[in-house]
Structures are given as structure tokens and as C-alpha cells.
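The instructor's notes for this session suggest beginning with a concrete chain rather than abstract definitions. Hand out the sequence below and ask the class to guess, before any prediction is shown, which regions might be ordered.
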Amino acid sequence: MNEEGCRDASQPVRGLGLLSGGLDSSLAVRVLQEQGIEVACVNFHTGFCIQSHTGAIRNPKKGAEPARHDALHAAQSLGVKLHMVDISKDYVRIVTDPKHGYGKNLNPCLDCKIFMVQKAWELKEKLGFDFIFTGEVMGQRPMSQRKDTFPVIDREAGVKGWLLRPLSAQYMPETEPEKNGWVNREKLKNFTGRSRKPQMALAQEYNLTDYPTPAGGCCFLTDENYSRKLQDLWNNRQTKEYSMEDIVLLKAGRHLRPANNYKIIIGRDESENNFLSGLKAGRLTIRAKNLPGPFTLVEGEPNEEELKLACRIAARYGKGKNHHEVTMVVEGKQTSQTFTITPMPAHEILKEWHV
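After discussion, reveal the predicted structure:
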């Protein structure tokens, strides 16, 4: 665009897309590339991406390839520049107070999409692109990808007429890029519904073969177990605020809350033990003395009897679980204690303690 807001006809049409790295967003890129449109993409970091943190927590097997970042991989395969933008700080208000509420779990999908579209538009304006686009498909997701929610997203994000959805465009009103002749509407798609078969057929046509499993999900907030842990955190703090360390910690370990004033987080394997050990600042830790066992974090302010109970629980998951007595070491920033306890039998670990 020039200073008067008109685009220079001698320059290629430029579209900025939201790229998750999944099949739909990758196809949206290819559909526009087929029309000779210059495409670049943006990927937003919210702090809740399943893939990035699973890769960080889980050590790859010896000789295995390290976990890849789907958006980076897709951008490389598609030959487009990818802008990586961290929106996690501003994203807190989207998670804690979504205007349009939550989905099945703690997923604020509609508010999330509006927010990301707003951020993409800001980047589009900064970089001088002509329009923005997404890989959304009408009817694919129950909260944010419906015929009645698409206009809500466009209106509340302030992009009415300038957000193109190439995969379902023929079911929707013409956008400004189409009206202006920058995009050929006849070459856009008419995909609807939850089936991925049309997308998979188009991917084969484009020779796109290396993409994540469609409908695999990419956000912890859609996960029932994770949402339960986050709700437990909010309930016991009596506030919906959270830090990045809080949400990372919810992604690893076995979480048990024997009382409202404290919680214990027990590593389930070597990878989680190593991961949790990096988050011990400001928390108590529990380890068995002279015996292999899990690394355990304690959050909150347990009294001595509650600490002994936490030690008994932690010992249940270690190599000394069948011993009559095990010595456990509790350490904090300015404290170190040892307790000789009897590991708790499995049947005494109450179901309601598990978060």
C-alpha cells in the first residue's frame, strides 16, 4: 500500500496468513501461492502449545530426531517466511476472562481467534501486506469455525472484508481482496464440515505429504486433564491469574492435592524428573535418600505433618515403595529436613487427591 492507502499495481499482491503448521493452514498457503500471490505467515506463541512443551519435557530416544516445530517445518516446506510472535503476556486476559466464554474445557476458542486475527492485522499493517488469511474451514470446529461465528470474528477483530478464508471462501461473502481482483474467487475452495478427506485429497494434489495428523489438536486448554489442573490452581489461589511458570508446571508430573493449602507434583520418569528439577526455585523438593525414586515438588505451605504425608506419597512411587521404612529428604531455599517414613500403600492414596 502507498501513503494514500492504495496498493501499487506494479507490485505483487501480498497476503499474510496465520500458520499453525497443520494441514488446513498449509493448504490455505498453497491455494494462494497457486494464484501467484506472495505469501508470508505468522505463528503465535501463547504458552499453551502442546507440541512445544511436550518436546521440551520428553527427551528423545537415543538416535531419534529432536521434536520439530510444525509451523517452522511447514513454512520451510512451503517456501514462505514465518514470523514468530510471542503473545503470551497479553494472552492472559483471553484465558482468564473470555468475552465469549469457554468451550468444552477451558478453551476460549472464539476469543482466541479474534485476538490472533487482531494481532495478525497489526503485523500486516506494519509489514505492508494487502490482506490476511487463515486456514479455517466452515463447520470444522464447534466454537469458532461456524457460519455464524465467522462474522463475529471479522467484526470484533476490526478486519471486516479483509480476512480471507481460502478453503471455505465460496460459501462466504466476497472479501475485499476478491472484489479488487487480487484473488480469483473461482480458484478458492468450498470445503465445509469436520471431514478432512477433501483437504487430504487436495494435499495429495499439491504433493503435501509431511503434515501432522489432522484434528490432532494443538492447545492444552482443549485437554480435559490439563484444564482440570488449571481450574484447581485457580480455585485454590482464589484468583484466575497465572504465570508462565505456572502453566508450564501443569504440563508435567503427577499432581496430587491432599489439602487445599498444598499440592505435590511427582515426576513420572527421568525426563519429567529433570524437567521438574529446573522449577524448584521457591518450592520445596522431596527425594528418597540412597534410593532411586521420583523428583517431587511441593507447592504451598504444608505443616510438618502434611510434609510427612507428602513424603509417604512420594515414596510410594519410588523403588522403596515396598520397604518398611524409607528416609526422605525435604529441601528448600533455607531448609533441609529428613523424615523416616513408611511408604503409603496404593489403596490409601485417595482418588480425590489426584488433580
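Then share the key points. The chain has twelve helices and eleven strands. The longest strand covers residues 38-45.
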